[in-house]
């Protein structure tokens, strides 16, 4: 299934549904359904601003050295190029709205690194597949997203 045939992708414990991804809009808007305990590895990107609005659940956000715990209605903006991550710290799936400007990096990354799902899918896979870390890292590198993984 190519990216033009769906609006929904599964990536590392998260369903990502594009609500807006037209490059001419100047932003992308994504609704995310995040499994308990799921969230991306710390990362940074120099070309897309990013902001998160918590719709449901409780999330912990790491922005630089700061840790924020936000529930429904909470909002956080990531300064351009700042290291950041989030994790659903609740016991049930949580929902986020994610805004990226101009969004090109995230449109490409989500649709290339994620597994295409039928349009409008809104249930997390059961059982939850393990993330393909090599694919995640390589797709991030190709699109200008740096993952900050611990030294092994």
TrEMBL record:
<feature type="domain" description="Cupin type-1">
    <location>
        <begin position="16"/>
        <end position="123"/>
    </location>
</feature>
<protein>
    <recommendedName>
        <fullName>Cupin type-1 domain-containing protein</fullName>
    </recommendedName>
</protein>
<dbReference type="InterPro" id="IPR006045">
    <property type="entry name" value="Cupin_1"/>
</dbReference>
<dbReference type="InterPro" id="IPR013096">
    <property type="entry name" value="Cupin_2"/>
</dbReference>
<dbReference type="Pfam" id="PF07883">
    <property type="entry name" value="Cupin_2"/>
</dbReference>
<dbReference type="InterPro" id="IPR053146">
    <property type="entry name" value="QDO-like"/>
</dbReference>
<dbReference type="InterPro" id="IPR014710">
    <property type="entry name" value="RmlC-like_jellyroll"/>
</dbReference>
<dbReference type="InterPro" id="IPR011051">
    <property type="entry name" value="RmlC_Cupin_sf"/>
</dbReference>
């Amino acid at each position: 299934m190519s990216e033009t045939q769906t609006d929904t992708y599964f990536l590392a414990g998260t369903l990502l549904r594009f609500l807006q991804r037209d490059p001419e809009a100047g932003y992308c808007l994504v609704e995310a359904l995040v499994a308990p305990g799921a969230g991306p590895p710390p990362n940074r990107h120099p070309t897309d601003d990013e902001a998160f609005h918590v719709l449901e659940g409780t999330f912990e956000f790491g922005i630089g050295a700061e840790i924020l715990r936000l529930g429904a209605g909470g909002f956080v903006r990531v300064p351009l190029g700042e290291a950041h991550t989030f994790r659903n710290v609740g016991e049930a799936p949580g929902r986020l709205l994610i805004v990226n400007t101009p969004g090109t990096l995230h449109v490409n990354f989500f649709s290339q690194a994620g597994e295409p799902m039928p349009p409008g899918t809104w249930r997390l896979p059961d059982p939850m597949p393990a993330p393909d870390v090599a694919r995640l890292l390589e797709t991030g590198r190709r699109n200008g997203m740096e993952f900050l993984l611990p030294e092994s």
